[in-house]
Design brief:
34% of the residues lie in helices and 11% in strands. It is an alpha/beta fold and 446 residues long. The strands form four sheets. It has a five-stranded mixed sheet with strand order 3-2-1-13-14, with helices on one face. The chain has a five-stranded mixed sheet with strand order 6-7-8-10-9. A two-stranded parallel sheet has the order 4-5. The N terminus is likely disordered.
C-alpha cells in the first residue's frame, strides 16, 4: 500500500491545526512492516449532569431533563420484586453509547411525568438489559442517564450488567495487560474519550480524535483488526502494534501523550472509589420478575446448575456485588465457579441456536420461571423464539451500532484512503423496538 493522507477534516468543524502539522500530508505505516520480529501469538466522578441535561432538554423538554439529572444515592440492592399479575414490565435492550436514544425510549414509554417528576404508572416497572457503553460516543451520558433513573426510582427501574460493562470493570485491574478498551473496534469510540477529560478539550484533542477515527478506517479497510491496539504503546509479546505507530513520526509524541491521558482518565472515572464505579459494581447480572428471567446473554445447563447451587438469582447477584471491587473482580471471574458462571451468562448466545428450545424449556422449569429475556445478540427487531419462551430484545437501539455496527465512525460520511471501507452518515432517528409485558402477553413497541 502506498502512504497517503490519513487526516481528513471532519465536516462542519473548523479545526485549528497545531503548529508544525500539515493536515494534508499525514502519512501512516503498514503495521505489517513494523517490528517484524514480534511473536505471532495473539493474545472520580466527573460533573457531566449539566451537559447531559441540555441534551435531554432538546429531546424531551426541561421537566424530564431535570427529573433524570437528579440522583438520590448509589448501591441499591436488587431483589426479586413481588408484583401482582396486573404488573407491566417494560424492557429496553442494549443502548451502546447513545444517550439521546436512551432518553427517547424512556420518554416514548410515558413512564416519568416531566412536570411533577413522578413515576406515572404505579404497576409498571422498567428493565434495562445492559450494554450501555461502547460503540457510540456518548457512553458516559448514557450511564449517567440510566443511573439517575435507578437512583430516582429504585423500586421501579432495574439496570442489568452487560458484557461490555463487565469488560470495563475488568480493565481497571492494572494486571490486565491487553485491555478490552484497546480493541480497534466494538469498544470505546475515540470521541468518547473527550467526555472524560479532567480539563477543557483543546484543538489538539479534536485533532487526535479525528486522527484516531481515520486510523480506524484504515484498520478496517486493510483487515488489521487483529494487528492493532488503540494504545500509546504495545507489548511486542502480544503480537500487536500500537495505533500510534502507524502514523508518521512527527505525530507520534502527541498521539501517545494524549492516548495515555485519555485512557487513564477513562478508567479513573470508573474506579471503585467513584459513584459510577460503585454503581456498576452493584448491577445485577440477572433479575426475575413475574415468572420472567432477565439476563444479558443467556443460560445453559452449567449456568442454571450454578444458580441452583448458590441458592437463587439474588444470592448470585449478592456474590457478584461482594467481589466487584477492582482489586477482586478479575480473580473472581476467572478463578471461582460463580465468577465463571457470571462471565458465561453475560456472553452466552447458545439459546438462539437451532435445536436449543427443548433444553431451554427444561432449564426454565428447573429455575422456576416461564420465560427468558436476553439482550447481547443484535438484530434489526425484537425476536420471539421457542414458542415465546425466549425473547431477544437487542434491536440496535443505538444509532452508531445501527449505522456502523462494531466500527468506529464519525457522524458524517467518510471513507478510507483506498475507498475500500466507507462510514455512512449517522442515522438521525432512534429506531428499533422495545417490549411491554403484561398478564403473560408481550407487546412489541416500535
Amino acid at each position: 500500500m502506498r502512504p497517503g493522507i490519513l487526516y481528513r477534516q471532519v465536516a462542519a468543524r473548523d479545526y485549528r491545526v497545531p503548529e508544525g502539522i500539515d493536515r494534508h500530508s499525514v502519512n501512516y505505516h503498514d503495521p505489517r512492516t513494523i517490528h517484524r520480529t514480534r511473536s505471532a501469538r495473539e493474545r472520580s466522578d466527573i460533573p457531566f449532569i449539566f451537559i447531559f441535561s441540555m441534551v435531554l432538554w432538546q429531546l424531551v423538554g426541561a421537566g424530564l431533563a431535570a427529573a433524570l439529572a437528579v440522583g438520590v444515592g448509589w448501591g441499591h440492592k436488587h431483589h426479586h420484586r413481588k408484583v401482582t399479575n396486573a404488573a407491566t414490565i417494560y424492557v429496553i435492550g442494549d443502548l451502546h453509547g447513545d444517550a439521546t436514544c436512551a432518553a427517547y425510549w424512556v420518554d416514548r414509554l410515558g413512564l416519568v411525568d416531566a412536570a411533577t417528576q413522578q413515576w406515572l404508572q404505579p404497576s409498571a416497572s422498567l428493565v434495562f438489559m445492559g450494554d450501555y457503553i461502547d460503540k457510540g460516543p456518548t457512553s458516559l451520558q448514557t450511564l449517567e442517564f440510566v443511573k439517575n433513573l435507578t437512583d430516582s426510582f429504585p423500586n421501579k427501574v432495574t439496570a442489568l450488567l452487560g458484557n461490555h460493562e463487565m469488560e470495563l470493570l475488568k480493565d481497571r485491574d492494572a494486571n490486565v495487560v491487553v485491555k478490552y478498551m484497546q480493541l480497534p473496534y466494538a469498544t470505546v469510540h475515540p470521541q468518547e474519550y473527550l467526555n472524560f477529560l479532567e480539563r477543557p478539550a483543546d484543538d489538539k484533542d479534536h485533532l487526535v480524535v479525528d486522527l484516531l477515527l481515520n486510523a480506524s478506517l484504515e484498520v478496517y479497510a486493510n483487515q488489521w483488526h487483529q494487528r492493532i491496539l488503540v494504545a500509546a504503546t504495545a507489548d511486542p509479546r502480544y503480537g500487536r502494534t500500537a495505533v500510534t505507530e502507524i502514523f508518521e513520526e512527527s505525530l507520534q509524541p502527541l498521539l501517545k501523550e494524549r492516548l495515555v491521558e485519555y485512557q487513564a482518565s477513562y478508567l479513573k472515572a470508573f474506579g471503585s472509589n467513584t459513584s459510577l464505579g460503585q454503581w456498576l459494581e452493584q448491577r445485577p447480572v440477572a433479575h426475575v420478575q413475574e415468572g420472567v428471567l432477565f439476563c444479558h446473554g443467556g443460560i445453559n445447563r452449567e449456568i442454571a446448575a450454578e444458580i441452583i447451587r448458590v441458592g437463587s438469582i439474588d444470592a448470585l447477584n449478592n456474590l457478584v456485588g461482594r467481589n466487584s471491587h477492582e482489586s477482586k473482580y478479575v480473580s473472581f471471574l476467572e478463578d471461582t465457579p460463580s465468577g465463571n458462571t457470571v462471565a458465561e451468562m453475560l456472553v452466552y448466545r447458545g439459546n438462539h441456536k437451532a435445536g436449543a428450545c427443548p433444553e431451554l424449556g427444561h432449564l426454565l422449569e428447573d429455575l422456576g420461571v416461564e420465560r427468558l429475556v436476553v439482550g447481547h445478540t443484535p438484530a434489526q427487531n425484537v425476536r420471539s423464539m421457542c414458542n415465546d419462551q425466549l425473547w431477544a430484545v437487542d434491536s440496535l437501539l443505538g444509532r452508531w451500532i445501527r449505522t456502523s455496527g462494531n466500527y468506529y465512525c464519525p457522524t458524517s460520511r467518510r471513507q478510507s484512503q483506498d475507498g475500500k471501507f466507507v462510514c455512512d452518515a449517522l442515522e438521525k432517528s432512534c429506531q428499533g423496538q422495545v417490549v411491554k409485558m403484561q398478564r403473560g402477553l408481550v407487546e412489541v413497541i416500535s
